[in-house]
Write a structure and sequence with these properties.
With 372 residues, this protein is of the alpha/beta class. The chain has twelve helices and 15 strands. It folds into two domains: 1-113 and 311-372, Rossmann fold (3-Layer(aba) Sandwich), CATH 3.40.50.300; 122-308, Up-down Bundle (Glutathione S-transferase Yfyf (Class Pi), Chain A, domain 2).
């Protein structure tokens, strides 16, 4: 997967900007708050349909403007060149592939794969469970577009069920039965695909982590599920459905009292362990950073196995965070097999061999100029 060209119009602090990328390493160099991360954010929007920095699309439109657009030309070895575009206008968002509007965002996601590693990824390890669920969901959405369909429908059913549980009038059991049926139908797909993903991610991440830590630490990843499922049941969607339905029925009375749905994939987590111990309890910041890096780099191999080609790797101001030489070397070595877009405030942290062969862009006040 190669990102060939990117065009920004009234996006964040960019008025009009065209950028042509190399298949190899592309470095965006500039001081803080000049617009480097905005480029990364635009690429992220084209891959997963939303920003990784804000939930409000209106934040993406330049100050004083009514609309914005992002357009890219992407080259895949399995398809002809595609033009991807997202337009933002007056609170609405429209996504197009080769000029054809997509009826749903789930139809747009999956045409272009990326892996983003940013300083805030440390929160993947020490942050709230919702961040780790989002990590699972965004990865699966990129490689399995139908997953996003099931996840969206499941989330809508949870929202409707919670609203019913909080209603002041007597709860309608018939309506709850209908919503429970929707929860199970879509939730089974969310459960099964997450569990399969975590099983595969574990192997990739363990290999990466072993290389980073020189084999001194053993990383384990487990899907912390709110359902009492054994290993055999995880492989059978019908079995998952039976257990999920049973748990919803058992918890219905307490859910009515508490006013929310207490069981389901929206309550799950990703357990990260070193030596069998949860990393949130004892791991140093350096160890947490290493784990976060391992998770992100593991995504690269997962995507390759899923879609048959490597994603674009986005490294947003992370080299200064990687004070361990082995970590830095590992990240830089990834750029030898995947197209990389890297932002930095200084070339000091980059190996001589890398920045000599890379394409260098200077970013200042929302204007990007290529090195002569």
């Amino acid at each position: 997967m190669i990102l060939e060209e990117l065009t920004l119009r009234h996006f964040r602090n960019y008025a009009e900007q065209d950028i042509s990328f190399l298949p190899g390493v592309n470095i965006l160099l500039g001081e803080n708050a000049q617009g480097k991360t905005n480029v990364v954010e635009a690429i992220h929007c084209l891959a997963v349909g939303k920003s990784h920095r804000t939930n409000r699309d209106s934040d993406l439109v330049a100050w004083g403007q009514d609309e914005a657009s992002i357009r890219a030309r992407v080259n895949s070895k399995y398809a002809t060149r595609r033009e991807l575009r997202v337009d933002y206008q007056k609170g609405t968002k429209r996504a197009l592939v080769n000029g054809v509007p997509q009826a749903k965002m789930s139809d747009f996601v999956g045409h272009f794969q990326i892996v983003l590693f940013a300083p805030e990824d440390l929160q993947l390890v020490k942050g709230a469970p919702a961040l780790r669920r989002r990590f699972l969901d965004m990865e699966l959405a990129q490689t399995q577009p139908t997953y996003l369909y099931h996840l969206t429908r499941y989330a809508r059913a949870v929202q409707q069920r919670n609203a019913l549980l909080r209603a002041p009038q007597t709860v309608d059991d018939t309506m709850l039965d209908t919503l429970d049926e929707q929860l199970v139908g879509h939730g089974v797909e969310v459960y099964a695909r997450r569990a399969h993903f975590v099983e595969r991610l574990r192997g990739y991440a363990q290999r990466v982590h072993a290389a980073i830590s020189d084999g001194r630490e053993m990383l384990d990843i487990q899907y912390a599920c709110s359902l009492p499922l054994n290993e055999e049941q995880w492989r059978d969607r019908a079995a998952i459905a039976v257990v999920f339905q049973s748990e919803l029925e058992k918890k219905r009375a307490s859910d009515v009292r508490q006013g929310h749905t207490s069981v389901g994939p929206h309550r799950d987590d990703l357990s990260l362990l070193i030596g069998g111990q949860p990393v949130q309890s004892f791991a140093s910041q350096g160890q947490q950073r290493t784990i976060a890096l391992s998770l992100r780099l593991a995504e690269i191999d997962f995507i390759y196995e899923e879609v048959g080609e490597y994603p674009v790797l986005l490294l947003d101001d992370v080299l200064s965070e990687l004070d361990d030489t082995r970590q830095k070397n590992l990240v830089l070595s990834m750029s030898q097999k995947v197209q990389t877009v890297l932002t930095t405030t200084s070339l000091f942290h980059l190996e001589h061999e890398l920045h000599v062969s890379a394409k260098l862009f200077y970013v200042q006040s929302g204007i990007i100029q290529m090195e002569d």
